[in-house]
Each structure stands twice: as structure tokens, then as C-alpha cells.
Amino acid sequence: xxxxxxxxxxxxxxxxxxxxxxxxxxxxxxxAAEALFRSDPRWLGADxxxxxxxxxxxxxxxxxxxxxxxxxxxxxxxxxxxxxxxAIQTGAxxxxxxSTFGWRRDADGTPASFFPESGAEWYWPGHxxxxxxxxxxxxxxxxxxxxxxxxxxxxxxxxxxxxxxxxDAPLDAWRPRIVDAPALPFDAVPATAxxxxxxxxxxxxxxxxxxxxxxxxxxxxxxxxxGDVSGTEWWSGSAWVPQGALGPAGPAFVLDDAGAECxxxxxxxxxxxxxxxxxxFGASTIGVRTAPALTGPWSAPTTVYRPPESSGKKPFVxxxxxxxxxxxxxPRDLVVTYATNSFEFGDLFTPEGRRALYxxxxxxxxxxx
Length: 369
Prior knowledge:
Blueprint: E1 21-22, E2 28-29, E3 43-46, E4 50-55, E5 58-63, E6 66-69, E7 79-82, E8 85-90, E9 98-102, E10 104-105, E11 111-112, E12 122-130, E13 137-146, E14 154-164, E15 177-180, E16 189-197, E17 200-206, E18 214-220, H1 221-224, E19 233-235, E20 240-242, E21 253-255, E22 262-267, E23 272-279, E24 285-291, E25 302-305, E26 315-322, E27 333-342, H2 351-356, E28 361-368
Antiparallel strand pairs: 1-28, 2-28, 3-6, 4-5, 5-8, 6-7, 8-9, 10-11, 12-13, 13-14, 14-15, 16-17, 17-18, 18-19, 18-21, 19-20, 22-23, 23-24, 24-25, 26-27, 27-28
């Protein structure tokens, strides 16, 4: 039985006094932090990276498609590409922190996805939150299906919620309970960013067709801890309303282009809400928006960094996200990751590709009050 102390969840949604000042071009490479992702000789790179604080010195990392070595050669050429993996970071400073990576294994020992496939469909991780200091961990998962020869080779097939009852346990003891969620009557899929607001969990849902606009949905925390997503409320533009009260157009979109992947968090030092995303397809930049409230109004994006990989011959750079629980070189730094890939899969196996592609890259962005 799940017990959540509501007193531990009594966190009022903060309001910003004024948006943070974001300086164009203020991001800089933070390569020393990237050693965090290269500490396991069998974990050989992954797509995207999301983080969720589990405690003051413990952070969960979630990854999409991942190379996991199958042999002692420990090379991508002798790896299994599993659909998702996780890691636990111990210590706030990535330059000195320790990381433990996790995935499952099939009966024959072959590496397998941490969140198992559902028939021919699979899960890529969204964001989540821990409910209280000793409560369960709630994770949103995106459900995908293959579309060979079409687009990027995949399409959304729904979403799910995963519950980890004891996230303080070692990774090999985690037994996530995955509950597929019912289809929504409009195009807005949770959740790329999650925030605990008192007895509710607020999530950013992304429109999949066309521009990836962002809407807000909230859940009762007690129900969500059971994998129950009923009784949801959506932001209509002026109030939170039950899902059934929304018209055919669905909820209001508070961000006109939130990004297919992104992050939102409240920056306590600057007292601002901060949105981080990649802008562009192939070659991209990292942009930051700010707002006085989660519901907006949100500023236009300020370009803080252009990844050097965007200048390559076949750039595929995306999935910028902030990780406010990770320490930078300076207390004013916001650590951001982005993903590097190639439209030619074989590029990931060349000497240069093994070194530079398909690893989370780190940037430090300076935010000023």
C-alpha cells in the first residue's frame, strides 16, 4: 500500500517577482561534467537525458535509445541498442559525483530496456517527480511504434505512467509498475516537465502534430501514485477545468513552441520560471524563456548557445534540457544537456562518432536576477 504524507507535499507553486535576465550567447561548454556519462564501460552512449532529484545528493537520470555492450570488447559494434536506460548520480557536482547505470537483462543475459517493451511498441522516458522526501517516484513514459521508411522511423502510440514505490532502493531492486493511460481526445501528450504543487502534480503536455506547443495538466498526487490519471484538470487559459469540460480544441497552449523535448523549472535564485529547449531541426541552437508564473506569459526565447556540432556536415542536434539540481562551476550556472546524433546511423560507429556523437553534452548557462 502506498502512503504519502500530504504535509510533505505541501509545496505552493512559487511566483516570480520578475523574470531572470538571460544574456544572449551566455552558454559555454561544460565538458568536465560529461565524465559522469562515461564512467560505465558497458554504457556507451544514449539519446537525450532527463534528470529528477530523489534527495539532496541523489539524482535519477533517464535516457532513450542506448548502446549497451554485450561483450568484453565494450564497443558499439558489439552492443545492444535498448530503448531506455537509467542511472543514479550520487553527489551534486558532476565532476566528482558517482553514477550507477541500470538496464534489465533478458533470460540469455542480453541487455534489455529498463522499462520493458509492450509487444511491438516501446517506451521512451518523459519526466517525473518524487512525491515527498520518502514517497514514491512517478514517471511519465511516451509509447512509440515503428514506422519503417516513414519520417524518422517512429510515431507516438500513447503514453503511460510508471510508479517506483521505493526509489531509495538500489536500482537493481526497482520494480516499476507501468500503467498505460487512456488516449486523450486532443493532441497534447504528457509529460516532458513535471512539478509538484501541494497535493497536485503539474505536467507539461506537448502537441505532437505541427509546432510542438505546450499545455498544462494537473493530477491528484494520491491517485497518480496508484497509476490513476483520472480526474485531471487542464489549464484553459484562465482557470483549471476538468478534462470533460474542455471543448474540441482542447486546452490552452501556454508555450507556442515548447519543443518536442524540453524542460521547465522554477529557479529559486532568480525567482523565475525557466524553459529550456532546442530550436531548429538538424542544426539547432539552445534557447531559454522565462516567465513570472508557470502559466505565463512566457518571454520569447533567448539563444544562449549554438552547439559546435550544428556546424557539422550532417548535423542532428536536439533535446536541450536544464538540470537545476546539478551543480555548475559557479553557483549562478544552470547546467543544460543536449543530444548529438547523425542522420547516417553508421556515423555513430566511426572513431570520431564513437568519441563525440550520441553522448549527452553539457553546457553551463549563466542566469542573472
